[in-house]
Amino acid sequence: MSLETLVSPPIAAASPYSPTEFDAYVINSYARFPIVLERGAGCRVWDSEGRDYLDFVAGIATCTLGHAHPAMVNAVNRQIQKLHHVSNLFYIPEQGDLAKWLVEHSCADRVFFCNSGAEANEGAIKLARKYAHTVRGIANPIVLTAHASFHGRTLATITATGQPKYQKNFDPLMPGFHYVPYNDIAALEAAIAQLDADQPQVAAIMLEALQGEGGVRPGDRAYFQRIREICDEKGILLILDEVQVGMGRSGQLWGYENLGIEPDIFTSAKGLGGGIPIGAMLCKSFCDIFQPGDHASTFGGNPFACGVALTVCETLERDNLLQNVQERGEQLREGLRAIAQQYPALVAEVRGWGLINGLVLKEETATVSADIVKAAIAQGLLLVPAGPKVVRFVPPLIVTAAEIEQALGRLNQSLSNLSL
Length: 420
Ligand SMILES: *Cc1c(COP(=O)(O)O)cnc(C)c1O
Description:
47% of the residues are buried. The radius of gyration is 22 Å and the shape is globular. By secondary structure, the chain is α/β, with parallel strands linked by helices. It is built from 13 helices and 17 strands. The chain has two domains: 3-62 and 322-417, Aspartate Aminotransferase, domain 1 (Alpha-Beta Complex); 73-318, 3-Layer(aba) Sandwich (Aspartate Aminotransferase, domain 2). The protein has helices spanning 3-7, 19-25, 58-61, 70-82, 93-104, 117-134, 155-160, 185-195, 221-234, 303-318, 321-342, 369-378, 401-417, and strands at 37-41, 44-47, 52-55, 110-114, 142-146, 177-180, 202-208, 210-211, 217-218, 237-241, 265-268, 279-283, 347-353, 356-361, 381-382, 384-385, 390-393. The structure holds pyridoxal-5'-phosphate (PLP). The site of pyridoxal-5'-phosphate has 15 residues, from α6. N(2)-acetyl-L-ornithine binds at residues 153, 297.
């Protein structure tokens, strides 16, 4: 089969698919928008009625190379024909090669692979707890996390997540977490002083370099630099959750590069596989203290996921996508700021890094982000809320200048349709 046929399969007449039938079988744990997506190419997807959308969701900051990218199509086909899964009872070249790429392109020395962001964060929390017990002699280690953070949906990671709405009705939560306001160094220092008053208890500080789900809030450089000093002074581990902002989305390969610091441990997932499920927990050699039997994942690091993710990484580098992320990000923020000026009663600010940007709504307006997302979908633009007052823009990293322009036009049209 030629690449052309793989990339652009002949499309038959649109096939109607009923959301009602879907709801009869699938557990209703998601609030879904009422469109049925069937195929994609680049930064566009098509619904079951043949309508096209500019995809500025990208599978929630995941489809790094967009849809049906020839390099990914090739990698998927190559790997499934060669070897797709064998377990970690054996050596896997693709896993080793991906780990090598990540180590050579980050501050980390070693990598553990899993399948999702929550799982990567679980690994980071386990590693930090083991380090606290075995290296620092802390009996009841505490991990500090931030209000408005998001770290996943497992029991430990909803506990780490500093947002009560994700924890409600799932208690008892995991012990060993404590919350501080984000970007507030005085509050952090006060919390450590209080928790460590009698004996050291704080094992790790776990933060996003930019808070994604919590409202596209970039980390403050001075805050993170002071945290790095505190961690160095006290032997506390600094864990950065790079699940959303990492893998080039910020305009740098890793979010921490925007902050001028290096974490001891960091996690990656969303963009790493370009939409193929994979997660990674990376650490420096001094805290690489896991031994055989300490941690594992049946699917983690299999040849399929790692082979495809390595192709995503190499394509990002070969096609110089970081530069595209920086330029298109500038263009997008400029356009959003121009739109914001047209709607001063609605929009408070535009913020973000690279191609993770938020249109922040005024607290006092009755409009919520989901209203704008719905209006945008009606105009053929997919967006995703980041909380009730922020509309998030996370297109594939291959997005073109023309696509940004078109998306801004469709957004403008949707806002005027909302007649604000
Ligand atoms: C999405 C996200 C997670 C959770 O990732 P899953 O793959 O859904 O488990 C964790 N942390 C951050 C910052 C995220 O954006």
